[in-house]
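=== RUN LOG ===
request id: a7f3
mode: sequence -> structure
chains: 1
length: 449
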Amino acid sequence: MPDYDYDLFVIGAGSGGTRAARVAAAHGAKVAVAEEYRVGGTCVIRGCVPKKLLVYGAHFAEDLKDARRFGWQVPDTCAFDWTCLQENVLAEVDRINAAYTDTIGNAGAEIILQRATVSGANEVTLADGTKKTAKVILIAVGAHPAVPDCPGSEHGITSNEVFHLDAIPKRILIAGAGYIANEFAGIFHQFGAHVTLMNRSKEILRGYDLQIRDRLLQISMMKGLEFKFDATFQGIEKGDDGCLTVSMSGHDPVTVDMVLFATGRLPNTAGLGLDSAGVALDDKGAVVVDADNRSTCPSIYAIGDVTNRIQLTPIAIREGQAFADNLYGGKATTVDYDCVPSAVFSHPPIAGVGLTEAEARQKLGSVKVYSSDFRPMKNVLANRDERALYKMVCDGETDRVVGIHMIGPDVPEIIQAAAVAVKAGLTKAQFDDTVALHPTMAEELVLLK
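=== RESULT ===
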């Protein structure tokens, strides 16, 4: 048997790589993890965690206004200190980064804070030129924001840079209409910026239920967000005053202070050396893997966003767990990608699990849909004309709930429990048999008509 430096070498210390390394080490494997930036990956350092904290901060804009209707003497003008929020958010990122680092070390895995590339089926090369060998190599390098190929694209920023802005822009154009675009649209709007969303198609949040995303579009426009549909970049010009003029197809040019690209994410496989080991990539640059996360090279595996299956942190974590348990724990484990809940922390947020109405009609044919379109109690007293919409999609033959989709305050918190019910295959009758918890918004799930 060859003598390797490690049983497992993990490239990338994000959520998936960290879980795989920790669990493999706990099973007794000799493990090393290489990370070129900071331990924690996209989610912790420049993604869902700091972004959710910005979402919390943004909500105070409306909450402070609403508080007057609840008897609080809030001044008409409340100053917002971006630097204060930014420093507190980045301090929390530092704390979690340290916790992730400690977790890997405490599990007995070695952390190498350098970029590593693949230089053979069982070899990696570090940035300083050192070569290491491993019986198994795990690719967990994640993905990066896509930047449109247009003149002047260097003047725009991506979600990576948002957390380090010197100030909130007065006018911002956000390119894209997926979850990242809509989340930052809500954040910047509540922080006082005029927001323009630009999208190459006619719809937002493709993949979510049509009624739910239409409701978000309606509310967003009511709040003052501006949308440019069927628009593609023609160029971005920076003026002497620092302002950016964006030319686009089908619309007049727009002048803003900042352009944010939120047009998808691409796997981080460029320059990784995977071709040296015969690792196949798809047309998006993602590592092609089988159900056990093994690539076309038997000794190289991949998990998380770099495989471009479902780009969600909990999926990467489950894939990392399954990989480690399979190879080092003697547990035959595969990840079930059915009924994965998701949420968009827009303003208001949306959440869903299972089949949309359109998907259910195409797959099942016979479908029954139940819904509740209501004004949340808090919005009523706050005199805020903003309605929530809950929707349940059922198999018309069996009454089984195959999808739940929601928009309104706190729906991401509600959908987690609802996802358990959908995953378990419960029926509409079983929802109806459950006593409502009053007064809550969640009770609408057992009162749908």
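=== NOTES ===
The chain has three domains: 6-144+266-328, 153-263, 348-446.
The mean pLDDT is 96.
=== END ===
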